[in-house]
Amino acid sequence: MQDNSMYYLIILAMLVVFAILLTGIGGFAKGGEFNRRNANKIMRWRIIAQAVAIALIMTLIWLRGR
User: Fold this and answer.
1) Which of 8, 29, 46, 64 could crosslink 20 through cysteines, CB 3.0-4.6 Å?
2) What is the rounded distance in angstroms from the CA atom of residue 27 to the CA atom of residue 33?
3) What is the pTM of this model?
4) Keywords for this entry (predicted)?
5) CA dihedral in degrees (23, 17, 45, 55; nearest 10)?
6) Cα 63–chain centre separation
């Protein structure tokens, strides 16, 4: 049961990373004021979300190895 909830949490984290990535790519493609104002913030949020997703994946691997 714990593994299933962890899988769902990992999938959610990966979807968050994907949504942030698409927002960043869309802003970059559109350009303009939105991109100038938010490009660095979006990049930082993506890096943080990726770190969380990787930490969750590594935690699941560690738990399954025990």
Assistant:
1) 46
2) 9
3) 0.85
4) Membrane, Transmembrane, Transmembrane helix
5) -170
6) 21
What is d(CA 3, CA 57) in angstroms, rounded to the nearest whole number?
11
> Using one digit for the tens of pLDDT, what is the confidence trace for 5-63?
999 999 999 999 999 999 999 999 988 898 899 999 999 999 999 999 999 999 999 98
The residue segments making up the domain with residue 25 are 2-65
Contact residues for 16 (Cβ-Cβ < 8 A; gap 6+) = 49, 53
Q: Which of 15, 2, 19 is nearest to 53 (CA)?
A: 15
Residue 2: pLDDT over 70: no
Assigned token pair, 31: 């350009």
